[in-house]
Amino acid sequence: MNRIALLAAGCAALALAACDHPDAARQRAEAQLKAVSKLDCPAAQGELTRVSAAADGQSCVYSAEGAEVTLRIVPLAGGDAASALAPLETELKALLPPKAPTTPSATSSGPDGEGESVNIHLPGVSIEANDSNARVKVAGGVNIDADDDRAEVRVMRDGEDDTGRRHRDDGVQATFILASDDSTSAWKVAGYEARGPRGGPLVVATVKAKARDHDGHDLFDDMKALIRHNVGGRPRHGAIVID
């Protein structure tokens, strides 16, 4: 199976593993999140070193070799988390613009069997992948869109199911990752990690990095730690690896 199909299957499996399990109720009870009005920005977190902090406590900036992380407060102002985070996604996408589309290869997933493809539709999971791209959707707010040179991962959990009914009490948790080895930009990874109570505000850490693998260290782990330092909650286990 080609690497795009493997990415699709692996991400779907990870997303399903993150769904509720028998111990989820206890973990949610331990994960009550705080509503913050000002950030507490420690001098360092992991490989990140604080380089500036706004006087009003609404943002601070950290750096690591080849990377920059900004921690900020994002109010919901009565809206939903997706709408509040949309401007950040637009800002991050501008850092890694997609390449101009090319004509699909004649050997890409043809009826003669020259290409490989995956087309799976199960309750809560949809995977469509071939030699050049993959589209994965998992119930609960997980979407992956990947091709040979660019991958976009979005995870949004806001305590409601697709019918609008409450089914979790652990607030809003969102992840957005863009990665590209072929980008003409100096940045190869851009994304955010966000967390906060359902009524807001959210504490959001955005990152831009010049390499996918930052000396073997996951910058997203440091970002999550900064967020937990402010809003509380249990660590989120697992990571989506884009290879």
A few lines on this structure:
This protein is 19% helix and 32% strand. With 243 residues, it is of the alpha+beta class.
Explain this structure.
This protein has 243 residues and is α+β, with helices and mostly antiparallel strands. The chain has one domain. Helices cover 19% and strands 32% of the residues. The chain contains four helices and twelve strands, in the order H-H-E-E-E-E-H-E-E-E-E-E-E-E-E-H. It has helices at residues 3-17, 24-29, 81-93, 219-231; strands spanning 44-45, 48-53, 59-64, 67-74, 118-122, 125-129, 133-138, 142-147, 150-157, 172-180, 189-196, 202-209. Strands 1-2-3-4-12-11-10-9-8-7-6-5 form a twelve-stranded antiparallel sheet, sandwiched between helices. Strand 1 (44-45) and strand 2 form a beta hairpin. The longest helix is centred in the first third of the chain and has 15 residues, at 3-17. It is globular.
